Amino acid sequence: MKHATIQVHALQSQSHRQPTGRLLPVALALVGLLLLSACGSNNASSLVSGPRTVPTPSISPTQQNEGKMALATFQQWINLMQQSGGDVTTYQQQYQSDQQALQQAQTASAYSRALTTLKEHINAIQIPAMKAESTHLQQQLAQEVSAWGKVHTYHDAYNNQTYPLGYEYGSQGIGGSLWLGEELSQAQSLAGYQQVVEDLQMWLTNFEAMKANFSDKTPYNQPHKTDLDLLRHYGYMDKRVVVVSLSEQALRAYDHGKLVKAFLVTTGQPDLPTPPGTWWIESKQHPTIFKSSEPKGSPHWYPDTKINYAMQYHSNGYFLHDAWWRADFGPGTNFPHQDATGDPFAGQGSHGCVNMSTDNAAWLYNFVSLYTPVLIY
Known about the structure:
Elements: H1 2-49, H2 61-83, H3 89-104, H4 108-151, E1 153-156, E2 161-164, H5 177-186, H6 190-214, H7 225-234, E3 240-245, E4 250-255, E5 258-264, E6 277-280, E7 283-285, E8 288-290, E9 305-307, E10 310-314, E11 318-322, E12 354-356, H8 358-367, E13 373-376
Parallel strand pairs: 3-13, 11-12
Antiparallel strand pairs: 1-2, 3-4, 4-5, 6-13, 7-10, 8-9, 10-11
Helix pairs in contact: 2-3, 2-4, 3-4, 4-6, 5-6, 6-7
């Protein structure tokens, strides 16, 4: 019996050992799977519930260049206003603030917001800067015209009066309320003030040319240096141009920079000056009737008058035309005088038009076409 029992225990021991040897690799495999499962579970959990990192858009070179250009533009407007005598304190502070905001921006959106503010400041300064420049140029023109007119005068022996030369640029002319004043009052936009500035620059250019030409002793029927300088300045060397010299009371016609004809004229009297500037032929009429816009009791009234050749160069009613009632043209005829015809309407300057003989008007009528430039200085 004991032997049998021992066999049984031996068998039991043997039976316990054999399964253990077979299960060990399986157990190890299960542990490995559990570990892998745990690792996989942790990764999945981190992807779902962990914090996400969103890339921050960086400031592009294009944005940076736009910012640099905008700052440069703002500074140019500030410089313009400062040169014109305007107060730029507020705008300079805005510039510094905008510059700092751009430099400190860390993201594209922050840079974009700073750039938007900068552009708003640029838009805000433009009209005040143009107003300041308009005022500055207006004062410059008035001062130069006044100073020159005090030294350069015309003494009229007919009525013993002395007149300042260059009056066409003064308070009775384009520098006064009917021209510059009205233009300034109508300017409401940036484009309006830009037009005022351009006109003032044109008048200053033409006035300087008139002063230079005053000392030029070249005969009126020869090419003048100031004529050619102005033709080049305005880009008129490649076309036909009509040039009217106020100081000489002369008209010269150029074709591609070559003088083709010259003759004497009569321009506007001191109370009704011929407007200097760069104009062009707007219409041609042959013949026509001029009717006065003044009442009959006005010293500027005239009866209905037939005009054979009329070439309008400004829409306010300014023409190049024949003045068949006149016998005399040239220097002094724009002031009170005794015309050879004895006609009282011929004894003073025009009402702003450029008068000439009928023959010369006929020639000019055929020379010009619509949009032919008319340069008056």
